Amino acid sequence: MHAITKEIITNHKKISLSESLEKIGVTGKSKDKAISYDNFSQKCHSSSTQIIRGATVKLFCDLINDISIIRSELLSEVDIDREKILREDKLGLIKLALDSYDKVNKAELSDTVVKLKKRELKKTENRNDFIPEIH
Length: 135
Prior knowledge:
single chain, mainly alpha
């Protein structure tokens, strides 16, 4: 009987992913890219999450700045049509800001779950399968 190693599990996952992609019609270079993205995600999850989180924070700050600009313009005298457009734009930007806030929170939750699962796996891998003999 062969010992199950991390390498065997990883190879099995790659084969399973490859077969699954083919079953849904993803082949050739598209399949290769999907597998590469999966490998990147497995190895660099925290880094990619940090990059996305940072970009989302910048987007959020830009949206808040744009909302402030619209608010300032609404305080000045504008015609009715312009006011309507500005208010619609402001509502749209507020929705985008709230959506980005929600996405950051969901990403944080997902990241925490992944870290906990990785920690559990490491504990399982590091555990000695020693079973004492009882006489």
